[in-house]
Specification:
There is one protein chain. By secondary structure, the protein is of the alpha+beta class. Among the domains are: 30-126, Immunoglobulins (Immunoglobulin-like, Sandwich), CATH 2.60.40.10; 137-231, Immunoglobulins (Immunoglobulin-like, Sandwich), CATH 2.60.40; 233-326, Immunoglobulin-like, CATH 2.60.40. The protein contains four helices and 28 strands. It has helices at 7-24, 332-364, 371-387, 422-426, and strands at residues 34-35, 40-46, 51-57, 68-76, 79-80, 85-87, 91-95, 102-110, 116-117, 122-126, 137-144, 148-154, 166-170, 178-179, 182-184, 189-194, 207-212, 221-225, 231-232, 237-244, 247-253, 263-271, 277-283, 287-290, 299-307, 324-326, 409-411, 430-432. The strands form eight sheets. Strands 4, 5, 6, 8 and 10 form a five-stranded antiparallel beta sheet that branches.
Length: 435
Amino acid sequence: MGPAVPAGARLFLALTLCLAAGAAEPEGRPAGRKVLPPPSNLHYSFGQLCKLKWTWNPPEGMNSGCDLEYCSEILINGIPQENREWSRNLFREEDVSLNEEAHFRVRSECKSDNTSEPSNWVEISTPPKGAAGTAAVGINCTWYNLEYMVCTWLPGQNASAGTNYTLYYWYDGLGNNQQCQNYIYGDNFGCNFSLSIQNSTDVYPTISILIRDNSEEIRPVCANRNPTTIVKPGPPRIVTASMIKDEMHIEWQNPGTFPPHCLVYQVELKDSKSGSVQQHDIKGYTEAWFPSVHPNTVYVVKVRARVEGTCYSSNRWSDWSEEKSIGENTDFTFYIGLILTVPLTVAVATIILLVYLKRLKILIYPQIPDPRKIIKRMFGEQIEDFQSYPGDDFLNVRKPAMEEEIHYLVWIENPESSTSDNEDRERPALQVKAL
């Protein structure tokens, strides 16, 4: 036996051997396991609209007994998207936004061979085109009544005022991508296009939306939408709203072509007297009865709809239907005001009628003038004209009618003798004396 080795020396020797063994193998890989070669000839190409397709070749020098698979993942602006995928295919196709840098990487793995390690990653990036901040933002799409889709967006903050965005759409089964024609201009840009997908399996394809400009300076942007998550029914139409005793009956039409079991309705009743609002959810029916309503109250009724979660995953309510009023309002204030207003109105109308009739009487029966005044006025004017006639100055002497001179005749017998002539005696002397 050789000399004894101190305990401290034995510990130092063990640590040295461990460090040497760790340096012999790459970090994270067990010693003695073979590292697979990576895939070769990785490149990408653009497919339909927003789809990006990556392809590669098998790794060189692979063992035929390896159950080879490829692990791939996509990073956006360097951030993993939790989309790691394993496949035996030599390609992968995914939708990308195009306005951000897409980084793709793939490696080889041998699942059935425990003696090998996955290869190193092979990476390739897709830089965006156009200037930063020019892509459309705030893209919002809604599928109305399973008939047409409306998409709106805002211009990029760095886009010029004259930028003309163009919308293209595509989904699996459409064939070629289509350009939208019916644009909306205003505070928001937008476009609507017909989208009626015939589907009997309740599985709808993803809708790809591309918004770009013909200029190379404007950055394109893609958005993918699951149509079942953006369904919005049209507003229902109330066809019957009546009050039967103390029950209210409301009936409406199913909007669009939805199956009856795929819609949930909400009926809102507003009491015009108290202002209280009641909301009732109705499922699977297009009519409802509401008992115990006050017969002397006016109710304002409206209805809206949304799709059922078992058919579609959208939670968007439709717009409200037109309002309908039901019931009678017995507000005594109105009747009191009516009682006070009617007599006042009648009195005012009577006064106006009397004044009007008086004026009408004057028009129908004019006042007959006094003939004496007419004659007097007529002859008086003639006398004045005659007296003022020139050349007859002797007629200009006007005497008052009541100031005529009165002459008194006095008979005086002559006391002469009988010797006077007989003729003189027979003719009495006539003397006129003016008094």
